[in-house]
Amino acid sequence: MTTDKKPYVKKTYVKPEPKKETLPAVKAPAPIEVSADIIKDLVLTGNIGRMNPEEKVRYYTLLCKSLGLNPLTQPFQIIILQGKEILYATKTATEQLRKIYGVSVEKIEQKVIGDVCVTTVSVRDATGRTDGATGAVSIAGLKGDMMANAIMRSETKSKRRATLSICGLGMLDETELETIPGIKNPTVQIEIQDTAKKIEDTFSVPATPEKIDKEKINQLPDIAKKGFGILGYTYATINAFCNKFGWDNGRILAEINRVIDMKEKTKESV
Fold it and tell me: Which residues have a Cβ under 8 Å from the Cβ of 146 and sit 6 or more positions away?
C-alpha cells in the first residue's frame, strides 16, 4: 500500500507594515525683528534692557548655544548697572566652560598687600592657549574663620575670572558683584535699611519638605557648620541652603559670610 506524500512547502509569513501616521507640519517660529537701536545697545554696551521678554529669551538661548552651555541651568543672570541691564556669569557658567574648553589651572600665587588678599592664577585650555587673571578681596578687620573665608573667595574669584577671559567672555562674574556699588537685580532688590528678617529671607533658603541629608550636613566644613549655628538655621533650612548651591563648600561659605555681613550691616543701620 502506497501513500502519496505531498511535497513540503515552506510557508512564509510576511509581517504587515505598520501604518505610517502623518504628523502635522510644525511651523518654524517666525524670526524676531530687532531694531537697529537695540542691536547698537547690545553690541556697544551689552545692554539688553530695551529688549522685550521674548527677545531676551531668544538672545539668552542663542548665547548659551554659541558657547555650548545648557540654558536650563541658568548660566547667566541679569543685573541693572548704571541704568543698563547686562548679563553676568554664574558659578554654573564657569564650571561648564571649564569642562567644555578643557580649562585647567597651571599656577596659583597668593599674597597679602595691605588689607587686601590678592590671588593670581594662570590657566590653560585644551588647545594649549594660556591666560591669567587676578582676584582681590578685602581682609580688613577679619580674623579666624572670616579671614579664611575671604582668602578662599579671593582664589575662587581669580579662577572664575581667568576662565571667562580664556573663553573670550568679557563679562562680570558673580564674585565681582559684591564690590561694585549701584548694582540692582531686576527681581530681587536688597536694601541695607531693611529689617534683619527681610535680609535673611532674601539670602537664605526656606525649609521645604524635601528629604534632609544629615550625613552630608555633618560632612560640611567646621567653618560652615559654625556659620549656620550663628545664623540659627535648622537642619531643614541648612539642607535647602546647600541644595541651592550644589553642596559646593566654597560657594556655601561665601553665601554664609554674605548673610552674616548683611545682618551685621542691618544692625548697624538700625
Answer: 257
In this predicted model, what pLDDT tens digit does every residue of 161-204 receive, in sequence order? 999 999 988 888 888 887 777 666 654 333 323 333 444 444 44
Overall number of domains in the chain: 3
| CATH code of 172's domain | 3.30.160
Any domain includes 14: no
Instruction: State the cell numbers at 106.
Output: 597651571
- Tell me whether residue 203 is in a domain: yes
156 closest CA partner among 228, 225, 94, 78: 94
Are residues 170 and 107 located together in one domain of the fold?
Answer: yes
The conformation of residue 173, written as its DSSP 8-state character, comes to B
Residue by residue, DSSP assigns 126-161 as: TTS-EEEEEEEEE-TT--HHHHHHHHHHHHHHHHHH
Q: Note whether 206 and 265 are same-domain residues.
A: yes
Q: Which one-letter amino acid corresponds to residue 227?
A: G
Tell me the per-residue pLDDT of 227-265, one tens digit each, with 9 for 90 and over: 888 888 888 888 888 888 888 888 888 888 888 777 665
